[in-house]
Amino acid sequence: MIENKVAYITGGTKGVGYGIAKILLENGVSVAFSGRKKGDVEKVVTELKQYSQNVLGIVSDVKNLENESETVKNIIEKFGRLDFVIANAGLGIFKPVDQLSADEWNEMIETNLTGVFYTLKASVEELKKTEGYYITISSLAGANFFENGTGYNASKFGVVGFTQAAMIDLRKYNIKSTVIMPGSVATNFNGNIPSEKDAWKIQPEDMGNLVLDVLKMNPRVLPSKIEFRATKPNS
Ligand SMILES: NC(=O)c1ccc[n+]([C@@H]2O[C@H](COP(=O)([O-])OP(=O)(O)OC[C@H]3O[C@@H](n4cnc5c(N)ncnc54)[C@H](OP(=O)(O)O)[C@@H]3O)[C@@H](O)[C@H]2O)c1
């Protein structure tokens, strides 16, 4: 039963996080989501209220542990509990390794990898109380390396290893953990503007439905690592 449970999704202002927020709200879950800019967060709260009133938008940068701890406090104040944490926020900068700057490397690693740890660090005591669920969004780039992908590949391979090791630590507390590794999703990632050309891709709602299915699984089973791809890639 997932009705009346509470989810926190990092990076819910657009793309994958937005799609997950929409589907969870439609299915009776209260949703808190984050983004870095107040104006964007407020706009998305208004949009998401068409699906359910039980939505909370919070300005938080996953690179900042204090932000994440404050966010979890706000969620508990508003909803009283936290059941599902979806560490989704991420970005990609794609350049040959000799042209990738230290700042670009740090931005990816701190957001995509350290951020995933900070979000768990801030929420794990609440997840213990609810015997909740921790889901991370890695990528097929967390298993397959490619040209211009050094920083992104490193961060996403890292998320796969991190989540699987965390899964072993956390299941002692009846907390489940899953790493989802999507292929191409029709989002704003890497400057993309979603349009009809993206019809072949995974859609943000597909990500939401996958998360919903995972959360609804019988407590005795745990899909710890999921590769999720478009049926017919258009490449
Ligand atoms: N799109 C794909 O093809 C694809 C494939 C595999 C995996 N993924 C992964 O899916 C996740 C979501 O990406 P997306 O495709 O939905 O991209 P997107 O459309 O660009 O959305 C990224 C989201 O992350 C948030 N975000 C970025 N940095 C943040 C930070 N430091 N703190 C808090 N929020 C932050 C953004 O919010 P603000 O800009 O409002 O702060 C936005 O809501 C990423 O981890 C990405 O690596 C994407």
From TrEMBL:
Residues making up the signal peptide according to the UniProt record: none
GO molecular function per UniProt: oxidoreductase activity
KW Amino-acid biosynthesis (keyword) present: no
Entry's transmembrane regions: none
Pfam families the UniProt entry points to: adh_short
Keywords, in A-Z order: Aromatic hydrocarbons catabolism, NAD, Oxidoreductase
Entry keyword Hydrolase: no
Similarity remark: Belongs to the short-chain dehydrogenases/reductases (SDR) family.
Protein name as catalogued: Short-chain dehydrogenase
